[in-house]
């Protein structure tokens, strides 16, 4: 038995991330997924937020060490904290 359309929304929404080129991780990407028949507004929002979250995590995890050294990682964490209205405490040094 194949899963229903609603059961595959997350997988289908996250699928474009497999093609994301991590070499260009400093360029913001907004993958778009088109469903037939269209999803409801709530389903579309949920899938888009899922894709955004996966992409946010995938970028620093897949970055090369010369691109994401400790200072760059802290800067990325601060940027994420600002976008999500979160607080961050960076402990840096020896």
From TrEMBL:
<protein>
    <submittedName>
        <fullName>Uncharacterized protein</fullName>
    </submittedName>
</protein>
<feature type="region of interest" description="Disordered">
    <location>
        <begin position="1"/>
        <end position="36"/>
    </location>
</feature>
């Amino acid at each position: 038995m194949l899963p229903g359309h609603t059961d595959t929304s997350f997988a289908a929404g996250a699928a474009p991330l497999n093609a994301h080129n991590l070499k260009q991780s400093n360029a913001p990407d907004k993958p778009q997924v088109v469903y037939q028949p269209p999803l409801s507004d709530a389903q579309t929002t949920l899938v888009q937020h899922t894709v955004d979250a996966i992409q946010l995590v995938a970028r620093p995890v897949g970055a090369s060490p010369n691109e994401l050294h400790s200072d760059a990682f802290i800067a990325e964490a601060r940027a994420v904290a600002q976008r999500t209205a979160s607080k961050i405490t960076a402990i840096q040094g020896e």
